[in-house]
Amino acid sequence: MTPRSAxxxxxxxxxxxxxxxxxxxxxxxxxxxxxxxxKGIPDxxxxxxxxxxxxFGGKSPINEQNLALxxxxxxxxxxRGVDLPVVWGNRNWEPYTDDAVDELERLGAQRAVxxxxxxxxxxxxxxxxxxxxxxxxxxxxxxxxxxxTGVQFDKIRSYFxxxxxxxxxxxxxxxxxxxxxxxxxxxxxxKLVFVTHSIPDTMEAASRVSGxxxxxxxxxxxxxxxxxxxxxxxHAVEWELAYCSRSGPPTQPWLEPDINDLLTExxxxxxxxxxxxxxxxxxxxxxxxxxxDTEAMQTATELGMNxxxxxxxxxxxxxxxxxxxxxxxxxxxxxxEDVEQATVGDLPAFRSVCEVDCCLRRDGEPSGVPAxxxxxxxx
Length: 379
Ligand SMILES: CC1=C(CCC(=O)O)c2cc3nc(cc4[nH]c(cc5[nH]c(cc1n2)c(C)c5CCC(=O)O)c(CCC(=O)O)c4C)C(CCC(=O)O)=C3C
Ligand SMILES: [Fe+2]
Prior knowledge:
- It is a single chain.
- By secondary structure, the protein is of the alpha/beta class.
- It contains 11 helices and 10 strands.
- A hairpin with a 2-residue loop joins strand 4 and strand 5 (147-148).
- The two termini are 30 Å apart.
- The model has no long low-confidence stretch (mean pLDDT 95).
- It binds coproporphyrin III (HT9) and fe (ii) ion.
């Protein structure tokens, strides 16, 4: 147990840093422009993705989910006697990174610690956040040769192999199995299919600079979750990893198999029961609501499968408590203390300060953009 009244010093604020999403139909196109600026995503894909959002009235669930996570973090911090304001900001929608820095300044924060809503390390889940933060500070005239000249930022390590994240996923998968059973499925014969966001092969290759690649991080956590689920349920659990939400030109290779292709292939081999666990996402945002709940579920139904989609970690207590543990761990590291970094699985704790060329967008191609919380720009 972490003691009550734990110390978050030297930090005076927690920066909850997320992707952002549209709140209404008029937001969709400007949001997509923000996401795709300079990324070479074909117009056809953008129109398709726009339709996913319009199908939900133009509103992504992600902002409300982040507000719920913020409230849960505030409650957990208060419960542990940690007096630390939580400021929320997004890369691609309001409140933007710049708005969050304004808010941190208004609160008088001098040293904030960033918590990104992505559990894995790759360009999309790590460096892109650190670049956006650096560029935001640069535009504000607050980026010096060693980092920020205004509010200083550190980042909490990628937390895919932290016990809190894993425990919350195990609970969600067990609930998924119970639902499969309730709808007449055969849990002991089911396949557990973990799902995450596909990324280009070259982004996957670049992610090895941080240690295990993005895909390897998923495989490591999947093995642990499946093992715990098997132990809890008392039967063997066969599992696989699949991907969703690929974009980019069709000629560019991305991580495979796509969840729909995997379901089709396995159905052909006689598989009837599936539990899909979206371990790549921390909440049920649009990728989950559309790519899994709408598209993959339709595929499974057409194939005559008995499928359920397990929950995401969201605001599950084990996840939220784990995030606060990670925050306190990062604070102890910042204070120069020797800390034991809790992990599960075979991989070590991810580094808290990134390598200079960690998680580039494309393997071997320097980004040309500064990134905070790395060895060159420490804060
Ligand atoms: C690894 C990863 C995560 C998980 C980690 C994390 O959570 O950060 C993630 C999350 C998210 N991705 C999201 C939305 C989008 N991602 C896009 C495009 C892309 N994502 C990529 C990767 C990831 N993305 C990549 C390699 C691209 C190609 C362009 C590029 O290289 O950047 C596009 C453009 C259109 C399209 O191509 O789909 C959109 C609209 C939303 C918001 C959902 C909502 O609104 O509820 C969230 C949480
Ligand atoms: Fe990184």
